[in-house]
Amino acid sequence: MNAISTAAEPGRSPVLAKLSSWYASSGDWLKTSVVSLVGIVVFLLVWSAAAQNINTSLGAFPGPTAVAGQFKSLYAEHTAERAKAEAFYERQEARNAKRMEADPDYQPKIRKYTGKETFLDQIGTSLITVASGFLLAAVIAIPLGIAIGLNKNLNTAINPIIQTFKPVSPLAWLPLVTMVVSAVYTSDDPMFAKSFVNSLITVSLCCLWPMLINTSVGVASIEQDLVNVSKVLRLSALTHVRKIVLPASVPMIFTGMRLSLGIAWMVLIAAEMLAQNPGLGKFVWDEFQNGSSESLSRIMAAVFTIGFIGFLLDRFMLQLQKLVSWDKSSAVR
Amino acid sequence: MSFILNIDHVDMEFPTPTGPFTALKDVSLNIAKGEFISLIGHSGCGKSTVLNIVAGLHQATKGGVVLNGKEVTEPGPERAVVFQNHSLLPWLSAYENVELAVQQVFGKTKSKQETREWIEYNLQLVHMDHAMDKRPGEISGGMKQRVGIARALAMQPDVLLMDEPFGALDALTRAHMQDSLMEIQNELNNTVIMITHDVDEAVLLSDRIVMMTNGPAATVGEILEVNLERPRNRLALADDPEYNRLRSEVLKFLYEKQRKVEPLRGQKDAEKTKPQKTPEKTAAA
């Protein structure tokens, strides 16, 4: 190695030498970012080459440029739709003002703009749905997990049920959830759309388990010495849970929450497709049904969006864990 | 002499798949107020079991423990325990660890100001007032054990129970901790039961050394009175004939009268497996 590099030295251009010394002197992060950039470029090239060779009934498979173009037009559609909505409300206000002038007793009617959701609206809906489903699951799973972790008999009783339900696909739950919700959730003026409730419950049902299992394992594996400290201090059951059990199992609870949030986001897309909740899942489904020449590139844009948001959600949980947990080493990656 | 703590004919059996295992048989011991007792014996002789029964973490199968005229049935802060591996709550600072104990014991009787002063006083006793806001992960093993002692002292226990408190520390730190403990003992004159493996530690710190026979069915073998004058100084005592006599008494008990008969397990296994294993070993080497 050494011999070769010294032999090559005189022939090296000054630019290359400068570049390599700069490369060596800057920190590790630079190396990492250069390497990952290379990875991305290679991926784009392979994708682009492969896409040209795949012909579907909707035309060639979209390459990177087509998808990038779609991002632009999706954003343009969003701003156009917003402008339309604003114009609608302005017209409505002007009309109402006019009628008030003519007739002071007139009660103005405010109608909502009913244009179609844009891609950004759908992202928002998806985020709200996943957050609600995840929170519902957490509210059930964490207290139940603590109870299971503290009580061996309860664990023995519930464990088979957990193990049976854990691997069930959201697609199996959804029809059941849909039927139950439409039977039970009846109201003339529902606060939430049924499609939203269906997706939310399906998400909860599927992302409950990792949180439940990790919480119970975390609670059950508290050091006996810490439990003895609690006994010597004669902490009440509630104080024991609050001061010893909960903080001791926070790292495990967060591990479970991160797994759960990942699952929730994956499940959500499937649930939205079938429940027709106006989120990213519905976007994908609608584009698939639409079958225009642009559909595939729009779906591909959604795929990247879904992936990137999933990544951000995971980073968010990691930051939250770092903020809350005393055990910094458990929140490294 | 009036006794504060009576361990009265205690038997301890543990259930095992092959029938009950008798760990302790007829252990009796009376301890006076302000006395420092060491329990010494080979590992597995049930020293910790005795301590756990006094702490209330185990229930004796027969007999019982009476503290201040009341029978011990459950753990409580009047019998504070210093655990071998500190068992501080890793998410709390040194101050907060002691605070949890103080709040629990004196929460109703001490004002906020008094509580704070009491926590700080106890951390000063163990020379940890400079690191009150450090978490266990940020301080050394010896310092953690100091905080553990401060937490136990802060409960103002009737009896302080120490389960090999310095067993996990290196020799120098251990000596330092022993000196600290003597200093504290000089000031507070607590009643202490300490488990130890260390003969020097036992002689240096104790008023009486309780030597236990080997298990199963371990019991109190001999009790050695240590009448060395306090305060004791480890350097001065090194040449003291009485100190050395006591030391050799304990050693004789442990290594002549109660010598562990079983050979070291590693040796035994090696001998057993030698003939078959030899070719593999040479191949691996």
From TrEMBL, chain A:
Pfam family, one: BPD_transp_1
CDD domains, alphabetized: TM_PBP2 (cd06261)
Membrane topology: Multi-pass membrane protein
Main location: membrane
Localization, UniProt: Cell membrane
Transmembrane segments: 29-50, 127-150, 171-187, 199-223, 244-275, 295-313
BP term (GO), one: transmembrane transport
Keywords: Cell membrane, Membrane, Transmembrane, Transmembrane helix, Transport
Protein name: Bicarbonate transport system permease protein CmpB
Organism: Parendozoicomonas haliclonae
Gene assigned in the entry: cmpB
UniProtKB/TrEMBL annotation, chain B:
Record-linked SMART domains: AAA
Top-level taxonomic group: Bacteria
ABC transporter domain: residues covered: 7-239
GO terms for cellular component: plasma membrane
InterPro entries named in the record: AAA+_ATPase, ABC_transporter-like_ATP-bd, ABC_transporter-like_CS, ABC_transporter_ATP-bind, NO3_transporter_ATP-bd-like, P-loop_NTPase
Entry's localization field: Cell membrane
UniProt key word Hydrolase: yes
Enzyme class name: hydrolase
One term of GO molecular function: ATP hydrolysis activity
Cross-referenced CDD domains: ABC_NrtD_SsuB_transporters
EC number: 3.6.3.-
Keyword Transcription annotated: no
Sorted UniProt keywords: ATP-binding, Cell membrane, Hydrolase, Membrane, Nucleotide-binding, Transport
Positions of the UniProt region annotated as Disordered: 262-285
Topology within the bilayer: Peripheral membrane protein
Stated family: Belongs to the ABC transporter superfamily.
NCBIfam families: ntrCD
PANTHER family: NITRATE ABC TRANSPORTER ATP-BINDING PROTEIN (PTHR42788:SF7), TAURINE IMPORT ATP-BINDING PROTEIN-RELATED (PTHR42788)
The protein's name in its UniProt record: Bicarbonate transport ATP-binding protein CmpD
